Amino acid sequence: MKENLYIIKIGGNVIDEENKLSLFLSSFAAMQSLKILVHGGGKIATKIGDQLGIKSKYIDGRRITDDETIDLVTMVYGGLVNKKIVVQLQAKGCNAIGLTGADANLIPAKKRPVKEIDYGWAGDILTENLEFGAWSLLLEHNITPVIAPLTHDGMGNILNTNADTIASAIAVALSKIYDVRLIYCFEKKGVLENVEDENSVIHLITKEKYQQLKAEKKLFAGILPKIDNAFAAIDAGVKEVLIGNAEDLLQNITDKISGTLIR
Amino acid sequence: MKENLYIIKIGGNVIDEENKLSLFLSSFAAMQSLKILVHGGGKIATKIGDQLGIKSKYIDGRRITDDETIDLVTMVYGGLVNKKIVVQLQAKGCNAIGLTGADANLIPAKKRPVKEIDYGWAGDILTENLEFGAWSLLLEHNITPVIAPLTHDGMGNILNTNADTIASAIAVALSKIYDVRLIYCFEKKGVLENVEDENSVIHLITKEKYQQLKAEKKLFAGILPKIDNAFAAIDAGVKEVLIGNAEDLLQNITDKISGTLIR
What we know:
The structure is a homodimer. Helices cover 36% and strands 23% of the residues of chain A. By secondary structure, chain A is of the alpha/beta class. The first copy, chain A, is globular and about 45 Å long.
């Protein structure tokens, strides 16, 4: 039987609020199983970028990572945000290690090819090259990886990579040796049947249910890629995907008391 | 017989110059033995601090680390400088992992007590608590630690810690299980008998020779603490300390063709 591994992704909104982050990290530190935390960037990169005169550029909601911006996110995501999480987890009794995908070559990637849009130093993960050796080395010695949303191209360049994508790529790679459950923590209580109503959480989405919900056009368009990615991860070996609120106790999400289970 | 381990410290002047850094990293990557790289900060923190309106404050040549400054050095040392070294080493075939002393609790420290001067978030290493478990786990799996000059207090705070001190504390702790050689790379060719003459490198300094050089007042005052620390490390179990130029091939320093050997 494979050991259980939880991979948990937190986004910007939790990171930006000190109290929320501290509560979340307490609940993360208390989890007894093997675990990995993947964090997004938060608004702090934009704020520091503004102070440094680096303008955030977006096309269709995706950040364009020019030379200045990759340095900025390397500092802020890989340094400030990552290490602040690590010291807090250490203080809460979790032996955290803060890493990017460049460290120990954890997440090999390639620069996104320029087609209509030049995304700059954005990285697409080379999932076929993602090995589990260094990951399991750390996990099996009770060291908990905390991953910043950065990868590298193996040619000396750091690449900016979406944290959701990192979480799901790691989950798929590690499902070869662990029973992996992937948890996306975000600002809502789960997948909502009515986006206006926080109490309309759908507790279980199967493929059949998903087809039905889509046919009835009940789901908020923004959630569809998350669910599509969740099913792709499940098809590739991940046991379950859970979507819940970063302010809920993680234990309530893993126990399926709150949030949405995709299976 | 214990395995050989080299611990190499590079300072700011190499880090600030892209070409010099790249050459140094090539020579570091080429070393076949177990190795750890400890890096200083470079002038980039001051430059970015100026842009952010954070003034560098010094008392007696020591940086005062206030709240803004600890965030700044966490970003710059722990993020920008550290990860740029890691990606380059990865590209040169060295499986580097970039860490601070907070990660995996590698370097426990305590905030320096306030006496006449309040150094702020400056950390003194708790050498008696520095364990070799996580270090040897990485080294024995051919993963090369690259250490930023940051530690933590175990209570959720990052601390700014001198890179020379980190290198020597790690060297002493790891000398229990490895034959450790500590190399300080700096801007001169070694310990000079005449500070004006780069060709006056003293190739070997023993304790007797050191007493004699001090009696003759031949040494530049600035080098004395480095040599005192070197002998302290040797008395605590480190095999040899080498002081050489970051622009020399590391192999020439380890082969004792260039630089100063302290033993």
